[in-house]
Amino acid sequence: MAQLWGGRFTKATDKLVYEFNASIGFDQRFFKEDLQGSRAHVRMLAKQGILTEAERDDILAGLDGIEADVESGKLEITSEYEDIHSFVEANLIDRIGDAGKKLHTGRSRNDQVALDMRLYTRSQVLYTEIQINHLLHTILHIMEEHTETIMPGFTHLQKAQPITLAHHLGAYFEMFRRDELRLQDIYNRMNYCPLGSGALAGTTYPLDREYTAELLDFYGPTENSMDGVSDRDYLIEYLSALSTIMMHLSRFSEEVIIWNSNEYRFVEIDDAYSTGSSIMPQKKNPDIAELVRGKTGRVYGALMSLLTTMKGIPLAYNKDMQEDKEMAFDAMDTTNGCIQLFDGMLETIQFNKDNMEASAKNGFTNATDAADYLVNHGVPFRDAHSIIGQVVLYCIDRGIAIDDMTLDELQAISPVFEEDIYEAISMDTCVNKRLTVGAPGKEAMEKAIESYKEYLAE
Q1: CA dihedral angle for residue 387, residue 388, residue 389, residue 393, rounded to 10 degrees
Q2: I want to staple 110 with a disulfide (CB 3.0 to 4.6 A). Which of 317, 322, 385, 422 is the partner?
Q3: Do the domains 110-145+163-203+218-353 and 6-105 match in fold?
């Protein structure tokens, strides 16, 4: 078919060049956004007297018909068209004649695609925020149920100090809350309308860009027409936010994988979110967590691809920017899918409380509290550290926990120990005497949970 830009050319584009240049295979994804932008544009043109009301109504009816026929399957978006903009305009002209040729008045494909990508990304930002918000509710629900579920906290993947499951998951609540706030920041920064920027220098037509922006629920028009057609910062920011979300999901997945192992047995993953082995009948594999962890690199790749594409582009629009779509679309689909699947897995997971507490007790996680006990009885901290180091070695040699030592055994290492040492190093005491803001003590966690509820209720 003849191209919308073909007047300047005297022969057809080489077939391979045409296919290499075409974007219809992926930009058809924002078919509805293209229609949405065109409807706003034609309404603005009529308001400004650039089109008649009759022409406006004909164009709007034609766009409605195209949308209905595509949705019903009567009209197919095919590779016959170079891009989604050409598909819509060519079909509009076929249906309503000369009035359809006026749709593009005061508009360039540069500001048109800039608008379509911004509208699509804006909707995806909102969708991702909804998914993250649901995940936050899931995490908070688990926290409420497990303020007294004791488990070991880790540094260097070694047991460090006793905490609660609520405290551990609270760290992920903080991560995903930051993710949600980042998405809100991105939305507020990107929500300005590039339509009316033209190819790069605006237009001589008396466009009302504020009215167009209002029709499309933007805060206002972009302030510079060159930046309007060539800005993809908002998409880079969104891909960066998606990469951070995937990093958080991957960290959480790694822990679920470890907790699911035979050595830990902290969790039981629901059958609906795990698979078996084709050869080993005893296996129950944490495939969802592993795939989330694995797909993280895929999203990182999209971010690096777009950063690399944009780094050498002079103002204003260049065809390189067509590369902003395919990998970005994949990253959006991947991240949103991973959030939903991880959320479902987390909602149905079972936590083995007894195994968690036993692991904390048998990992010397109360050693720090034993040292603090000595300090509170007048022993300098450095000496207390050394004494408890000897206690731990004694326990390792005998395969016991500190709690299992008799008072005579403890006093043989240091006469400072008294009967109250056992209460001081009990798991409950170790956790619940930590009441500073952000600590795992029950009172501190209940305050944190209330603040999280208030956040989600806003």
Answers
A1: 110
A2: 317
A3: no
Contact by Cβ (8 Å): 310, 332: no
pLDDT of residue 439: 96
3-state secondary structure of 325: coil
CATH code 1.10.275.10 for 6-105? yes
Catalytic annotation present for 123: no
| Residue 450 neighbours by CB distance under 10 Å | 10
Please report, for residues 53, 126, 195, 223, 248, the alpha-carbon distance to residue 123 in angstroms, rounded to integers and kept in the order given: 30, 5, 17, 22, 22
Q: What share of the chain is helix, strand, coil (3-state, %, to 5)?
A: 65, 5, 30
Whether residue 90 is preceded by a cis peptide bond, meaning omega within 30 degrees of 0, is no
Task: Give the CATH fold of the 110-145+163-203+218-353 domain.
Answer: Fumarase C; Chain A, domain 2 (1.20.200)
Q: What are phi and psi of 193, to 5 degrees?
A: -95, 120
Question: What ranges do the domains of the chain cover?
Answer: 6-105, 110-145+163-203+218-353, 359-457
Spans in the chain with pLDDT lower than 70: 1-14, 18-21, 276-283
Q: How far is CA 91 from CA 41, 63, 200, 289, 444, in A?
A: 17, 9, 26, 46, 63
**The tokens 């029709």 sit on which residue?**
215
Cα torsion at 161, 167, 169, 175 (round to 10°)? -100
pTM score > 0.90 for this model? yes
Q: What SS3 state is found at 16? A: helix
Catalytic residue among 79, 261, 277, 451: 277
| Per-residue CA distances from 73 to 39, 70, 78, 81, 128 (Å) | 22, 5, 12, 17, 29
The confidence score (pLDDT) of residue 363 equals 84
State residue 150 phi and psi, 5-degree precision: -80, 140
156 carries an active-site annotation: yes
The confidence score (pLDDT) of residue 5 equals: 44
